[in-house]
Structure formats: structure tokens, C-alpha cells
Amino acid sequence: MKTLNEIIYGLVARVFNKHKINTDTVTIDDFDLDRVYINNDEYTLRMWNIFEDGNVSYTLFKTVGNHGKPLGSGKARTSKKLVRLLQEDAERKYREYLKNQKDE
């Protein structure tokens, strides 16, 4: 069975390879994949929709100065385990958002 790190790195490699970006050196600084370093260049992999069948829709950005340059969008296959964890994380963040709205 693959570890969560192996699953995430596999997803990143599939997306970046699809966009013809060499993935010799991959460093992921946070789980949301906001800061992914490939060969010392910074990218953001923004996941928009997470599907129960193991697919995610995404947009890939390369960091240029203080903004991101869109490189492409699409769907990438990942594991159902990662999909479940991403859904749980999104639900947790939404509950926190609702709680903060009530506190204001």
C-alpha cells in the first residue's frame, strides 16, 4: 500500500509531466500544494474539484514575481484515499469558516 506522501508525489508528477515540466527534484512545502518546487522553480497546483472516482480538476500556475502565471488546467487521476483526505480537509475548513462567521 502506498503512503500518503507517495500518492501526493505521484499526483504532482502526473500533472507536471502532462505540462512537460521535468520533475527530477520535487519539494512540497504544504499539503494544499500551494508551494511546489520543481528544479528550484516555484509552482502552485490549485485543485478545484475533487471527485469520488479518484480524479481532481486543477489549474497549474508558475510563480512569477508576486503572482502566478497559468500554465494549464485539466483532470488528474489520484487515489481514492487522497480524495477522501482532501474532502475531509475541505469540510474541516468550511466548518471553521462557518464558526468564524457566527463569532463575528
Structure description:
- The protein has a five-stranded antiparallel sheet.
- The protein has one domain.
- The protein has 104 residues and is α+β, with helices and mostly antiparallel strands.
- A hairpin with a 4-residue loop joins strand 3 and strand 4 (55-64).
- The protein has helices spanning 4-18, 80-103, and strands spanning 26-28, 36-38, 41-50, 55-64, 67-77.
- The protein starts with a helix and ends with a helix.
State the helical fraction. Answer: 25-40%
Number of domains: 1
Which stretches are low in confidence, meaning pLDDT under 50 for 5 or more residues running?
A: none
Sheet/helix structural class: alpha+beta
Largest sheet report: 5 strands, antiparallel
Number of strands: 5
User: Which range does the strand content fall in?
Assistant: 35-45%
Q: Look at the structure and give the mean pLDDT.
A: 78
Shape: globular
Distance between the termini: 44 Å
Spatial strand sequence of the major β-sheet: 1-2-3-4-5
Characterize this entry briefly.
The protein is α+β, with helices and mostly antiparallel strands and 104 residues long. It is built from 2 helices and 5 strands; from the N terminus they run αβββββα.
Write the layout of secondary structure elements.
Elements (H helix, E strand, L loop, with lengths): L3 H15 L7 E3 L7 E3 L2 E10 L4 E10 L2 E11 L2 H24 L1
Antiparallel strand pairs: 1-2, 2-3, 3-4, 4-5
Keywords:
104 residues, alpha+beta, five-stranded antiparallel sheet, 2 helices, 36% strand
